[in-house]
Amino acid sequence: MAKINDNYLKLKAGYLFPEIGRRVRAFTEANPSAKVIRLGIGDVTRPLAPAVLKAFHDAVDDLGTTDHFAGYGPEQGYDWLINVIIENSYTPLGVSLSTSEMFISDGSKCDCANILDIFAMDNIVAIGDPVYPVYNDTNVMIGRTGEADDKGYYKGIVYLPCNEANGFIPALPTEKVDIIYLCFPNNPTGVVASKAELKKWVDYANANDAVIFFDAAYEAFITDPSIPHSIYEIEGAKKCAIEFRSFSKTAGFTGVRCGLVVVPEEVMGTMADGEKYSFNKLWNRRVSTKFNGASYPVQRAAAAVYSEEGWKQTKEIIDYYMENARLIREGLTEVGVTIFGGVNAPYIWLKTPGGMTSWEFFDKLLNECNVVGTPGSGFGPSGEGYFRLSAFGHRENVIEAVERIKKNLK
Ligand code: MLT
Q1: Ligand 1 atom at minimal distance to the Cα of residue 390
Q2: pTM of the predicted structure, to 2 decimals
Q3: Helix (H, G, I), strand (E, B), or coil: what is residue 290?
């Protein structure tokens, strides 16, 4: 009989969001008349920007013509999309990238998971706690870890606690690690890292021959001009960092699917004989073998995000979500809730009132306010006692949810 990959059996529970979905379904089945407001998973609710939608439609029409029909595209993504991203999203930051350093994908979740393919299993990995669960769970799935302990920490991973005392920004590891996951603006805490903070990580990585996986999926939500949007704004980062970006939250593509990975030519690893080898070459090899590119209409739609009209409309949607974040932040602060994040990020990270556990607060909000959020402990042991609310809801739902919670907590 074929054997299973029993690393999967080490995973503690179901993936966080399906687990929340199951609990909410059970509640709605038992309470069919309850108007449940979902501010749990960070899923967008605004329709695509009109200019983006038009480009999407036009590209679908192209597929119905002999002259413009598109079959297999380049596995790495079309140059016309890559170049428009570089020109509009990196050049203004003073970051120069060549076309061969960017790879278009069908979303950042897969990229964050797939990148592990090109790294040896005996690399030591450091992960924040709390953290986007994909970083942790994919390392478990490929067999880099032992079993989890009682707290939920897997043997073999170096966890970097993020708490109120360190402003939810992890301290540098005290031991040598080879791979470091960083996510800023952060999911789930909504905090951001300054250039000085990122410089510490880049310097650590260069001094220790480590590679940083920098997840910048939420960079478009930064409102403070002093906060870096890309790790490559930091000197030395092109030698040590791989950056992930996503159209999901920036342009409402959670259902459309498009993301990108930047693997600079200079990021090197070592071969078994100690010689250096470029991760860009390896990633290119992987992509060419295991992927056939994001679909042509999706890439056309993504390129339209950067047209003058497309960006203006997209920015209006981003501002809409950030206004939601302000309403949640200010509303809950009024009733004494301690809030973090939500200023440069679409997530509000709050301290559960009265010392409740994260799941206790989840149940209270679901049962008493009919509002769904995400328990902080689902993002890691250090998330216990915290709770995440997403700003991606419809405005009227956000207002109503805040009113319900305020009334409940008064
Ligand atoms: C979240 O809610 O953390 C995100 O929507 C998950 C994701 O981007 O995959």
Answers
A1: 2
A2: 0.97
A3: helix
